[in-house]
Predict the structure of Glycosyltransferase 2-like domain-containing protein.
Amino acid sequence: MTRMQEMSLDYHFTVEQEVGSSTYAFFGFNGTAGVWRIAALNEAGGWKDRTTVEDMDLAVRASLKGWKFLYLGSLKVFYFLSLSLSPEFVLGFRNAFRHTFIDPCSPKSKPCQIFAMTLLWNHRLFSFPQNVLASITIRVKNELPSTFKAYRYQQHRWSCGPANLFRKMVMEIVTNKRVTTWKKAHVIYSFFLVRKIVAHIVTFVFYCVVLPATVLVPEVEVPKWAAVYIPSVITILNAIGTPRSLHLLVFWILFENVMSLHRTKATFIGLLEAGRVNEWVVTEKLGDALKAKAGAKAPKRPRFKIGERIHLLELGTGLYLFFCGCYDVAFGKNHYFIYLFVQAIAFFIAGFGYIGTFVPNS
């Protein structure tokens, strides 16, 4: 499940964030990591708790005030050391630490990896005539939800929140006079409608409802370019940001179709402001908890409630797809049953809770 999440998130950061930053277009702010100017926060009206995506809410309001955002996929911090290292010293510690030191006085010199110890800052031990430009690359590890239950709650919030925010801000965006019409169209159409609303609904309704239903109604024929070719191109473009996981492309498609069920439901809840619109469940991330539990004595028979592992929506959708597949085997001519059976199996696997790590309540 982690690799599936990686493929989705890589597209989000590589395409939506980096491309939006390089073209100075709007892109949503991720609350995980970011630096804000106090003036931008104040002018945008500060943080608001009207939706479950307060970071995106603030980013949209700041963008409407004319502020621009910059995405840094790899952050480097540069600083000068009043040191000069002998070749013997560099050779001895080149592979020990990830500080990259470049001698600015010698343009032909190559960066070398050295060990940065506190001793290097002690000028009484070394006498060096040159300045050395040093840089350190900052990488922060982040943990993804490893249980299907936690991932469902997270996706509900990520799908319901933007839809609800769109409902509350669409007129504010339309009537804004500080940004261009092109930018308003980009925020409304590309950012909200296509990526946050239409993508979820079309994925589930077309591939899990309409396309299987055409098997039952043979008079309705879906052209191959609409059912196969265009979606295949879009899928490949979405997954190309994670080349090391391209062999999992088919599994990712099946998994995304399963999750589109929850995203569609959450999108409608956000648009209609239904009961769970402001539901905030903190995403459970296990970390080293499982390792700690592994060392302890496990109970003989772990107990779990049926609702913790059995998901009726997935099972119901899987039964519908399986029935359509059986009907296509008996009466169909388009061989849709190949896709319908495989997708039904994916829904059954999710419905019985065999995705991700399962931690029963004991």
The CA atoms of residues 299 and 362 lie 8 Å apart. The chain has twelve helices and four strands. The longest strand covers residues 75-81. The beta strands are 75-81, 99-102, 112-114, 132-138.
